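This week, look over our next protein:
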Amino acid sequence: MQKTVEQLHYWLIKVPEVFRVMTEAEITQRPAPKKWSKKEVIGHLCDSAIVNLERFLQIQNEASPYVVTTYDQVQWVALQGYQELPIEDILMLWTSINKKIMYVLNHLDEETLAQPCVMNQQQRTLGWLIEEYMQHLAHHIHHQILMNECET
């Protein structure tokens, strides 16, 4: 889990640095209709962090196995109005939630990581869900923030 926490810490430093050197046009431009801007991508990552922090806590607290529910990612981005918010506010939210996730991850033991959950009718574990969160985060950062193409 230490490697996961270190990777998350790296992104919490790197992503704001990347946004600081971008122009407003680069941050807000949508590459095509129904595609997210970089600002909306980081907003989506805020939503993902919020949802996953709750999952990481509930798996430890709810009846086993915890059933992971989904959410309408596209609708959440639209409803939260990330495109209209200052990028500094979005980055502050994303950083704060992920710092809380780091705290939670630092306090998990092997037994807790093995706690079961069900996602898409498949048996998984809390450890698997955490790794899935990190892969999702890295995918969006690599392919949509660090690159020019932004897709929903």
Observations:
- The chain has seven helices and three strands.
